[in-house]
């Protein structure tokens, strides 16, 4: 089964994203901060990590850079899900190695569509 990590310090966002992922038949795990997110990626090797940028400890940008720098987990896809919507924020996300970038508030339907697209790419 496909494994997806959802890392966000907002429990309501985590719960909503997990609910939508489970409707897709995807196994999801969570992290409340950047350090937990990085540890989960290293331990569980999810196909996709959905990261908030603004989290306690390590930011989503930091986690993304660390994922890309580690050959054992560098193939993990990263989707930034964040309220940071300025053009420079988006550029920083992609420069750090993100595969996609979704801003809050977000459409759950659009998020699911982007996740499905990313996961289908991973299976090819």
UniProtKB/TrEMBL annotation:
Pfam family, one: Response_reg
Coiled coil: none
GO cellular component annotations of the record: cytosol; protein-DNA complex
InterPro entries xrefs: CheY-like_superfamily, Sig_transdc_resp-reg_receiver, WalR-like
Modified residues (4-aspartylphosphate): 52
Domain Response regulatory: 3-119
Keywords recorded for this protein, A-Z: DNA-binding, Phosphoprotein, Transcription, Transcription regulation, Two-component regulatory system
Listed GO MF terms: phosphorelay response regulator activity; transcription cis-regulatory region binding
Biological process according to GO: regulation of DNA-templated transcription
Stated name of the protein: Response regulator receiver domain-containing protein
């Amino acid at each position: 089964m496909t494994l997806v990590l959802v890392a966000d310090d907002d429990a309501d966002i985590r719960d909503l994203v997990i609910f939508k992922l489970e409707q897709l038949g995807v196994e999801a795990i969570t992290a409340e901060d950047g350090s937990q997110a990085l540890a989960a990626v290293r331990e569980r090797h999810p196909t996709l990590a959905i990261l908030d940028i603004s989290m306690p400890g390590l930011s989503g940008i930091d986690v993304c850079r660390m994922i890309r720098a580690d050959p054992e987990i560098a193939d993990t896809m990263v989707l930034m899900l964040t309220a940071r919507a300025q053009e420079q924020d988006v550029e920083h996300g992609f420069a750090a190695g993100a595969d996609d970038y979704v801003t809050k508030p977000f459409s759950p339907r659009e998020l699911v569509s982007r996740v499905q697209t990313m996961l289908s790419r991973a299976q090819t």
